[in-house]
Design a protein that fits this description.
Elements (H helix, E strand, L loop, with lengths): L6 E7 L8 E9 L11 E8 L5 E7 L3 E6 L9
Antiparallel strand pairs: 1-2, 3-4, 4-5
Length: 79
């Protein structure tokens, strides 16, 4: 983990009780060059539906915490 490669948070969905999963795509791409850190990572995403109607993703990222928004729960999320 780490380095200067971009990090991606992918989304999967299930409609049958979490038995079969479908890949929905990249919800968020963390551009490591923007972090200005020696090591780059992002993980532990949490998505909430805000009262404004937007979906907000909170995640642990280099060097602290990132917050991004989207109009849909599967993204794409943007800073």
């Amino acid at each position: 983990m780490g380095g200067q490669r971009n990090r991606v948070i992918n989304v999967y969905s299930s409609e049958d009780g979490l038995y079969n999963w479908r890949f929905r795509g990249a919800a968020f791409t963390f551009w490591c060059r923007q972090a200005y850190a020696k090591n780059c990572y992002c993980d532990r995403p949490k998505v909430v539906h805000s009262p404004s109607g937007e979906f907000v993703m909170w995640l642990k990222a280099t060097p602290w915490v990132a917050v991004a928004t989207s109009r849909t729960p599967v993204g794409p999320f943007r800073f």
